[in-house]
Amino acid sequence: MKIPPLSQISLAASWLLLGLLLAMVADPALFTRYSATAGAAVEHLRAPSGAHWFGTDQLGRDVFARIIYGANRTLPAALIAVATGLLAGAGIGALAGAAGGRVDAVLTGLMDVLMSIPELLMSLTIVILLGFGTIHAAIAVGIGQIAGFARIVRGDVTRISAMTFVEAARGGGATFAGVLWRHVLPNCMTSLIGLSVLRYSTAILSIATLGFLGYGAPPPAPEWGLMISEGRDYLATAWWMTTFPGLAVLLVALATTRISRTIVDPAGKRR
Amino acid sequence: MTRSAPATRPPAAYAETAARIAVRAGHALLVLWGAFTLTFVLLQLMPGDAVMIRFMDPELGLTPAQIAAIRLSYGTGASPFVQYVHTLGQMLHGNFGYSVQLGVPVSSLLATTLPVTLRLAVCGFVAAMTWTFAVAVAATLLPWAWARGLARALPGLWGAVPLYWSGILVIQVVSFRLHLIPVIGVGPWEGMILPALAVSLPVAAPLAQILLQHVDETANLPFATVARTKGASPASVFWRHIIPNAMLPFLTMGGLVFGELLAGAVVTETVFGLDGVGQLTRQAVAGQDVAVLQAVVMISATSFVTINFIIDLLYPVLNPTLRHRARRPTRSRAS
Amino acid sequence: MSPSNFRLRPDAPAAPAMGPVLDVKDLRISYSARTVVHGVSFQAARGETTAVIGESGSGKSTIARAIIGLLPQGAHLESGTITLAGDTLTRRPSHEFDGIRGRRIGFVPQDPSNSLDPVATIGAHVGEMFRLHTTLSRAETRERVLALLDRVGLSDPVLRFSQYPHELSGGMRQRVLIAGAIALNPDLIVADEPTSALDVTVQRQILDLLDGLRAEHGTSILLITHDLAIAKDRARDTIVLRSGRIEEQDDTAKIFAAPRADYTKRLIADLPVFAPRPPPADIPAADAADAVVVSNLRVAYPTGRHQTRLAVDSVSFRVRAGTTHAIVGESGSGKTTILRCLTGLIMPDAGTILIEGEDIAHARGPARRAMLRHIQLVYQNPWASLDPRQSVRQIIEEPLRNFAIDSPAGRRARVEAMLDRVHLPRTLLDRRPAEMSGGQCQRVALARALVIEPRILVLDEVVSALDVTVQARVLDLLAELRRDLGLTYIFVSHDLAVVRQIADTLSVIRHGRQVERGPADTLFDAPAEPYTKLLLAAIPGQGNAAPVQLQET
């Protein structure tokens, strides 16, 4: 195999896409001259062309522009979601794994309860509590992720705490907190970062799902899930209205998944 | 030579098994109670007059005077604890309260919608299992390296496809362009083909990845190599040694994702216009119909807990190392 | 049915009587760009045991895998041919090789604990051979399997037939694997380190069994091992491998009598069983203070509700300051439990442990911490006992920081001095464990233990995971450190040959009970207890390969 292997190409493409998306979040106007919310009614439902790369929607808005401005909304929201899940979940998991005993038993029970409620239903419960909107949806998605984070972190902390080098450090006079800080947590980090990136991609999917169901930002907003939902009414006539926002979600999710795999398993070898 | 009688298990072993089942069942009930408490705190303690919502329902046929009497008996803002105990007691009797939006008992709403969703979940689960095993077989046994690589990459691809989008795409291609299966006006099972397909893919993705991971791990264990040294072909090793071993952790994962199938119903039923629990849930969230949502969460949690309880019980059947503790060698290698 | 008149392969064709059973010519194997086997040629004589010996990385396992046609993923057969009784094996299509493996080449793997499918019965394991290669009925297969289980010395074959691997001990599992390997009376059995995961007494029984099968059925055996002593006892011919090249191959007797290659000479010199016991280096006076006194130690582990198992029962010994006390026992003997008590990791249920006169059980808080500082533990697996994310500098410095010893600059100097002490170059300071060899890691672990100047070192099988040459150097280092720093050692090991090199006094432990204790010389020269005698007799390399009798394991 003399050409670079497919895995290398896909990794490079993933980083490139992520860079582009960051630029879109920073300054959407750089990428399109159209507005995301104001459209020309006469140009409604135009198929993709040189003027409108991804076509226009039922109100004549440029679909490409709406996707770019949508990135500006969805990507930071997914960050909020992962941060919520990570902080609460890793906190619960690390405490359970490190403390052991009765604390562990209680927290594990709590995790079991959280696990028994599917992520989406958990998010919907929070949405009822907080109300609709992108940020609320993000927090709801994050709370849905707590159980997953907690379970993995607890497993990692328990596993690493039982390792010989941790016992050796204790023998060398290290305190409980010292061992946790200097040995257990650093050794959990790689898998935790990898997991966070992976959860970032599922957060994007989930936020788009809530948007699709109509619990995200209200209609004029350019949200990927909402765009797909709106495009459903024009399935037979304007395929581009659903196809391109869906592709956007798909590609971002794929790219982040690909990158997370590199973090967890840098050599690219299968375990 | 006579056939060996299976070593009879001492009575203590039965007692141990019974105790184990009791402990697991207790744990399952505890988890359900926790799920109820959590959703109650999140949903029903919201601002608003919970008693009013529950009893002003026209279905009850209560006169304003009666309602006033009830309010008096509970106190306008009946203490949260009283509400909690009341709701829990009702739910234990199969009474999930009333839908504010539709003005009918939640249980009657569930009676009409649950069969649809169960059908979708079962079809989706069967489809997901089919994909999962197809991928595992293809990724392990196909004779061409590129094809194995492709099969390996598939679950990652599915996992990233938004469920509602793939559903829409399927409708667009299959129904609008190819006119193969109509979306509306079909029988209860034929109508499930497309939704089950759509709901199964995102569920199959993590399942296939887990199964592949365990297949890889098992294939790297010495006993898989030893089986090859006996002259078994790769396919024979895969079916006779790797799959039975990889099934154990895979089953656990299967139990975990079954709940996601029910959640996936929310989106799928919306896309395909099925009148199931998912559709009901979507409307409940839009209308802040907390009693309905709590009922849905509890049904989902109950099915999750039940399935995992069954899997727990099945584990020793599939994994002999969890059986016959009494016959372990006295000289263990661990010191 | 009696096993003696049971023919293993009644329809076996008369094998050609002439020529070697295995002929390997110019074998060259590489992993991507790295060549690991550089043109190796050797033969294995029919009906004899041929040993291939080498340290880790010598390519011996790769050669074994090439012979059975199952090279690990990424390995590539560059050139060479392998011929089995006249038939070329190399470059055969996979499905054709499936008919040869098992039927004509039997394989006995290294680690019996993971080599049997945990969800299949013993009967299924051995029966698989007949299912794959014959058309025997279920009942016939069962008959054959039962006879084989009996032949490899398993008691109650009918019970074993329906048992699962986890219900059997390591030695029994290895017998099952051997039963599978000989089931179809193959031309050759490739045994890849068949006993390295087993206790020394069990090792001896398994090797006796293989020898017996060879003598009875004329099966040829290719014995892959790292242990020269085993080769000396068991093989007619020996091939010495190093870094994928053959250093020497000849009659085993000739090699051991007069090794030609320098490498072979060094290997033999470093083998503990052949090395003379070093003279006791100025042993402290008999009235030296006791560093450690253990009396009537007892530890029980809960095994269920209201049930406990005694892991250690009434063990007593005293160690004078500046001497080495060895605790010897096989797996499951409770020796690890004893040292975990010594280092304060678990509390004994009864008995006392005095460290320099102070009772470890009564110390609390800072006093306990100060006390435990003076007794440091070094572990068996050098990689596992070092944090993979820390550099050598961080690893050695950490205990100093824990006890707030010295300024940062002073600590730096101490770390560097310690590195010199264990004879490691300072260029290693920024390396991580994964970038070092096992011997280097074990030296780092020693440095970490010694940097806070303990007076007692507890050494848990510290050389068991190391190659024989590395092992010899680490033992030299231990002797030097003890002399220079006046340390007291408690040396836990299963390897009596190693213990003989280092111990002044020793305790023999079996099933948690102390079988015998006393000065090392007395125990080695005139053991009183049968178990001690048995352990001594089982040390390979002494040239007395007569079978020893012991209960089935």
In short:
The complex is a heterotrimer of chains A (271), B (335) and C (553). Chain B has twelve helices and no strands.
Overview of the structural elements:
The complex is a heterotrimer of chains A (271), B (335) and C (553). Chain A is an all-alpha fold and 271 residues long. In chain A, helix 1 crosses helix 2, helix 1 packs across helix 9 and helix 5 packs antiparallel against helix 7. The longest helix of chain A is centred in the C-terminal third of the chain and has 38 residues. Chain B folds into 2 domains: 82 residues, no CATH class; 215 residues, MetI-like fold. Helices cover 35% and strands 25% of the residues of chain C. Chain C folds into 2 domains: 249 residues, Rossmann fold (3-Layer(aba) Sandwich); 203 residues, Rossmann fold. In chain C, a hairpin with a 2-residue loop joins strand 4 and strand 5. With 553 residues, chain C is α/β, with parallel strands linked by helices. In chain C, helix 13 packs across helix 14, helix 13 packs parallel to helix 15 and helix 14 packs across helix 15. Chains A and B meet through helix 3, helix 4, helix 7, helix 8 and helix 9 of A and helix 1, helix 6, helix 7, helix 8 and helix 10 of B.
Which structural traits does this protein have?
heterotrimer; A: 271 residues; mainly alpha; MetI-like fold; 9 helices; 0% strand; elongated; disordered C terminus; C: 553 residues; alpha/beta; Rossmann fold; six-stranded mixed β-sheet; 19 helices; 20 strands; 35% helix; globular; disordered N terminus; membrane (chain A)
What is the strand and helix layout of this fold?
The complex is a heterotrimer of chains A (271), B (335) and C (553).
Chain A: H1 6-26, H2 63-99, H3 101-116, H4 119-130, H5 134-161, H6 164-171, H7 176-213, H8 224-231, H9 240-264
Helix pairs in contact in A: 1-2, 1-9, 2-3, 2-5, 2-7, 3-5, 4-5, 5-7, 6-7, 7-8, 7-9, 8-9
Chain B: H1 11-44, H2 50-55, H3 64-74, H4 80-92, H5 106-141, H6 145-160, H7 163-177, H8 193-219, H9 222-229, H10 234-272, H11 277-286, H12 290-318
Helix pairs in contact in B: 1-12, 5-6, 5-8, 5-10, 6-8, 7-8, 7-10, 8-10, 9-10, 10-11, 10-12, 11-12
Chain C: E1 22-31, E2 34-44, E3 49-53, H1 60-67, E4 75-84, E5 87-88, H2 94-98, E6 105-108, H3 122-133, H4 138-151, H5 157-161, H6 170-182, E7 188-192, H7 200-217, E8 220-225, H8 228-234, E9 237-242, E10 245-251, H9 252-257, H10 262-270, E11 290-304, E12 307-320, E13 324-328, H11 335-342, E14 350-355, E15 358-359, H12 365-373, E16 375-378, H13 392-402, H14 408-421, H15 438-450, E17 456-460, H16 468-485, E18 488-493, H17 496-502, E19 505-510, E20 513-519, H18 520-525, H19 530-538
Parallel strand pairs in C: 3-8, 3-9, 6-7, 7-8, 13-18, 13-19, 16-17, 17-18
Antiparallel strand pairs in C: 1-2, 1-4, 4-5, 9-10, 11-12, 11-14, 14-15, 19-20
